[in-house]
Design a protein that fits this description.
Elements lengths: L1 H23 L3 E5 L6 E5 H23 L1 H32 L17
Antiparallel strand pairs: 1-2
Length: about 120
C-alpha cells in the first residue's frame, strides 16, 4: 500500500512535467531521414514523446530477449523438480509398504512414580 502511494507521488510530478512540455513546445519541426526525401512535420512535443516511446519499447524488447535464457533454464529446473518429487513420493510409498505393521512392544519396563 505504501509503495503504491509512493509510486503515485513520483508519477504525478512526472505527468505534470510531460503535460507542461507538450503545451510549451507546440512549434512544428520537420523530421527527415537522410537517404530518403521524406519529411514528417509534427509538433516538437509529439516528436519527442514518440521517440521516447520508441526508445522505451526498444529497451523493453532488449530486456525481454536477455531474460529468455534464464526463463528457459527455470522451466527446465521446474520440470526436473516435478520429476524428482514424483520419484520421491513413489519411493516413500514403496518404503511404507515394505515396513508393514509394527509389532507390539513386550518386555518394556514400566516407569513408576516415586512414593511421596
Amino acid at each position: 500500500m505504501m509503495a503504491r502511494i509512493l509510486g503515485l507521488l513520483l508519477l504525478l510530478p512526472l505527468l505534470l512535467v510531460l503535460v507542461l512540455f507538450g503545451l510549451s513546445n507546440r512549434q512544428e519541426v520537420a523530421l527527415e531521414l537522410w537517404p530518403f526525401d521524406l519529411a514528417w512535420v509534427v509538433p516538437l512535443s509529439t516528436a519527442m514523446l514518440v521517440l521516447a516511446a520508441l526508445a522505451f519499447l526498444f529497451g523493453a524488447a532488449v530486456t525481454w530477449a536477455s531474460a529468455l535464457a534464464a526463463r528457459r533454464r527455470a522451466s527446465r529446473y521446474r520440470e526436473a523438480a516435478r520429476v524428482l518429487e514424483a520419484e520421491l513420493a513413489e519411493h516413500r510409498a514403496r518404503a511404507a509398504k515394505d515396513v508393514g505393521p509394527v509389532p507390539p512392544v513386550t518386555n518394556f519396563p514400566r516407569l513408576q512414580r516415586p512414593a511421596a
